[in-house]
Amino acid sequence: MTKHTNNLSRALFENTSIAIATAVLGLMAGFFWTYSFNVNLAMLQVDGPTYATVQSLFNRNVRHAAFFALFFGGAVLPLLATAINGRHWRTPAFWLLLAAALLYAFGIVAFTREVTLPLNAYTESWAPDKLPSDWAQTRAQWNAANTTRVWTACSAFALSLGALVLRAIFI
Q: Cβ distance 115 to 54 under 8 Å?
């Protein structure tokens, strides 16, 4: 192989790592967006017992390997792509990618652990026929938390997409 071929192969590997990270961030942004602007709006129209039942079902049924792979992949893959692209640390693309990785890791994964999961656990503890007096307030808190995740995930996706575009322009 020639030096030129090696450089092209390396650039392809580096850019592919950014593309995969960007795709996963885009999928997660779409997941949170769809939930907030479709499911949450529909759930605002149901009564308390229906909300308690359906929200608990959503929470339990999202716990599967594909979701976990994408959810945690949104933190791991951009960090891995950042490491793979470490030799470009002086470029804006590198810093956009690192910002996307950190934003997702803290703004989605840590935020979910600290805010959303406790609300999920609380909601899942409800008996639909004996709702707590704060059930509507809890629903509003959960919806607000998910809206925060929408904008955070969309921002991480945009940052990663920016890194990918810059790398494509300035190979």
A: no
